[in-house]
């Protein structure tokens, strides 16, 4: 799969064109992340970004998930280069953005109530990523991410919700489905199959 870069004449910004998969989740998300990663090959040319909205304690996903994938698993730091065949983890209590080739972290914009870090990241991808976008919403409370899904569809991205009956907490995927902008409703194992199919079609 090509991972060339191109230069936008409007922004003079380096824009990478390999696919990004944003996997957004919360309560019960660990089960979904493990089931997904166990079924993804390590060389499909896709960057996996797990956006888990934790605001009160440090995330431990970058320590837990390497047991379930041979891809490198990195906790995102400011200006970390986005690369294919990697799994990236959002740090706790931060909003995540991209500028075309790097990650950028900002103070969380919604410190009270249900976080919207998945929505924030998906909107940043919609505005600044040059490659295929795949938005995956898995187990979690509330509806983070749902408000950004129609924007992903408008730029021909792909949207997937975890099948609620396979989720430990179905609120988040049910909210995503209610947006009317979901392409596929699948178990984590079948989400992996669909990601591989999309990656190999690129």
Explain this structure to me?
This protein is of the alpha/beta class and 202 residues long. The chain is built from six helices and eleven strands. It has a seven-stranded parallel beta sheet with strand order 5-6-4-3-9-10-11, with helices on both faces. Helix 1 (29-37) links the parallel strand 3 (20-25) and strand 4. Helix 1 (29-37) crosses helix 6.
Task: Name the descriptors.
alpha/beta, 11 strands, seven-stranded parallel β-sheet, 202 residues, globular, 6 helices, two-stranded antiparallel sheet
Question: What's a quick, concise take on this entry?
Answer:
The chain is α/β, with parallel strands linked by helices and 202 residues long. The chain has six helices and eleven strands.
Architecture blueprint of SSEs:
Blueprint (H helix, E strand, L loop, with lengths): L4 E3 L6 E3 L3 E6 L3 H9 L9 E6 L8 H4 L8 E3 L10 E4 L4 E5 L4 E5 L9 H12 L4 E5 L11 H6 L3 E5 L8 H8 L5 E3 L1 H14 L1
Parallel strand pairs: 3-4, 3-9, 4-6, 5-6, 9-10, 10-11
Antiparallel strand pairs: 1-2, 7-8
Q: Looking at the structure, what is the overall shape? A: globular
Q: From the alpha-carbon coordinates, what is the Rg to the nearest angstrom?
A: 15 Å
Relative strand content: 15-25%
Spatial ordering of strands, largest sheet: 5-6-4-3-9-10-11
* Main sheet attributes: strand count, strand direction, barrel closure: 7 strands, parallel
Give the low-confidence spans.
1-13
Helix content: 25-40%
Our measurement of the CA-to-CA distance between the termini, rounded to an integer number of angstroms, reads 7 Å
